[in-house]
Amino acid sequence: MKLDDLPLHELRGTGEQVQAIQFPYVRSPDQDAAQPARHPIVIVGAGPVGLSAAIDLAQRGQPVLVVDNDDRLSFGSRALCFAKRTLEIWDRLGVGDSMVDKGVSWNVGKVFLRDEQVYQFNLLPESAHERPAFINLQQYYCEAYLVERALQLPNIEIRWKNNLTALQTRDDGALLTLDTPEGSYQIDASWVIACDGGRSPVRNMMGLDSKGRIFQDRFLIADVKMKADFPTERWFWFDPPFHRNQSVLLHREPDNVWRIDFQLGWDADPEEEKKPENIMPRVQAMLGKDVEFTLEWASVYTFACLRMDKFVHGRVIFAGDAAHGVSPFGARGANSGVQDADNLAWKLDWVLKGRAGVELLNSYGTEREYAADENILNSTRATDFITPKSEISRMFRDQVLGLARDHEFARRIVNSGRLSVPATLHETSLNTPDVDAFKGRMVPGAPLTDAPVQRASRDTWLLRSLGPEFTLLVFGDAPSWAPSLSNVTVLRIGMDLLDTQGLLAQRLDATPGTAYLIRPDQHVSGRWRKPNEEAVRAALAKTTCTQI
To answer: Which CATH number is 452-544 given?
Structure first.
């Protein structure tokens, strides 16, 4: 399927138009082949994670086949909150502007106890960043922009209504059986990336499981369309007067739609709670009897924090909800999944190009398992605070909320969902530890912060200036040996890029001669006050699990 096969105005249309898009099933020549056709990379699942991985790999020159059992985009808002780091990744993939232009940008959150504001917080208090802390954007829009971008790339093929029904793994790949409206056929894959969701059929076919904790509580999501004067902020109530002894979350979405999450309790019947006649009174009690609204979508979910023991199983690699799942509060699900794709794509590309061995791909597993544990820890703590399961726990929570009105120490304990931030990969073996003293957060393993710069007399941003491979940022003139580094772009701050506001040097604690080695996924690999060739080459070898 190509971009010309779809009416472009539908991908750019209203929520109703976008959700109504039906992608055409197209018969593939593989279905008539005498032997299963061989594909270097097959991605199972055309959600935000699978599409992000496909675009990243295709931009690196890899041919990618994406198969999906459906022929439509997601229905309802689902994954709604997309974080700054995710937007920066999507900038690199060519979809960031579309997401931000359509989405609702926000930085501020407020927490209430009953009908009184306890405190507010700003997730991006520092100015001069291109992207906001978060945007709210319905998942179907997100997927539409990713599909549009994917179809612009000639080395991506998406096969809709191709349902994976069997998978046989081998040392050199896997044999996939796909069911279509015209019957079943088989293909060979050198590598399989499973992005097929929390109930992952790939995981089940391989006899693998996710382990963790299921919390005994349920929440109702209600997307309502209304004209309201609520500010564009995240509002969270503990024990509000309109929904006593429970919690409520309010978010604004595009198109005058608002997401409301109601805590229901474990005894609630999910099917009953999803009925409009039971949802409408809850929403009306919150908004007031004179506010007019319509219900767009509703769902009931249960909190769970789960992950697979290992994300890499030979030639099959798991990402997103297929690999790990967290409770929705904190927006750590889709965001961490896109960061999985960001970590994986450059490593698989290097392996396929013969630059590195499978040890580099194994580092995807260790790094993203570490990130998943961090997300699960934060999500579990938030869930325990939001839904206390004993009188003592509830008493502690309410006392903390009361103290938070006036005391900073208590505000640090309040937990209405620690919102998604990218993991700093402290424990990875790919880092080169500091040998020089630095201040700030840009330690090896950290995602590089953004800053305004100027390039060729044009204002731009640091992250937009990085290439798809490694980057050596040098403050001042580059050493004579720097251009000889393979697969490394050298950017001289003060020459190639101008730090017009001095913020880049400030955020990186840089002085003349300082150098940062940046990975293809924009994480810091190593940094030096006065780099030498041996040290930088050793860092490259360490980061790629090879010799350069």
So the answer is: 3.40.30.120
